[in-house]
Amino acid sequence: MSIEIDILNGDASWPIAEPLHQAVWDPHIVEKLPWGHVKWANADLRVLIETPEDGLVCHVGIYFRTISWNGRKVHVGGIGGVCTREDCRGRGYATMAIEAAVHTMRANEAVRFAILFCEPHNFEFYQARNWHPFTGEVYCEQPEGRIRFDYMAPFVFDVVRAPRQGTIDLCGLPW
Ligand SMILES: CC(C)(COP(=O)(O)OP(=O)(O)OC[C@H]1O[C@@H](n2cnc3c(N)ncnc32)[C@H](O)[C@@H]1OP(=O)(O)O)[C@@H](O)C(=O)NCCC(=O)NCCS
């Protein structure tokens, strides 16, 4: 089976990714979740995995941001919107797409580490892929102002070396 992995501009490829997002995160269900009202950043790039049989099967958004950690500026990569079509899961697509995202971040020499945010049911999935819990505090922007972001748990990846604790300010919307 042949698969195609593309890394495309985030805004330009949103129309391709949107139907998969809607299928995985039904807006009617999401709006009732504790994080349903959160305003998220738009991805800078997107990893899209397509197969001839199934079309788009997997998506990972990539974000680049200068954040602050304990008051010091640091350039990081983020991943978000990780999703695989329900009937295509367990085939390694998300693992491949996350690897492609991390590879893309490594190509940007300024990136020190990567961050993602996830819910408890995905902790094991990311820990098995070398992401580590960040046990400090995370702040971000929302339309109402700066807030502590604790709707989801932060996990970090050592592109070079990621901190495990301290205070992170995303200096913008979360992803
Ligand atoms: C999480 C998700 C992206 C995984 O996609 P996938 O393409 O099935 O992932 P892969 O096939 O690369 O990996 C699946 C493997 O991880 C395991 N796995 C999948 N979800 C897991 C979880 N939540 N916890 C632990 N292990 C998990 C599977 O058992 C499988 O293991 P194996 O490789 O030993 O067989 C997919 O289940 C999904 O879209 N979930 C809904 C959206 C979501 O929660 N996204 C994450 C947002 S942070």
TrEMBL record:
The protein's UniProt keywords, in alphabetical order, are: Transferase
What region holds the N-acetyltransferase domain? 3-154
- InterPro entries xref list: Acyl_CoA_acyltransferase (IPR016181), GNAT_dom (IPR000182)
Which Gene3D superfamilies would you find in this protein's record?
3.40.630.30
The UniProt entry, under Pfam families, shows: Acetyltransf_9
Question: From which domain of life does this come?
Answer: Bacteria
CDD domains from the entry? NAT_SF
Keyword Transferase among UniProt keywords: yes
GO MF annotations in UniProt? acyltransferase activity, transferring groups other than amino-acyl groups
> Know the name of this protein?
Acetyltransferase
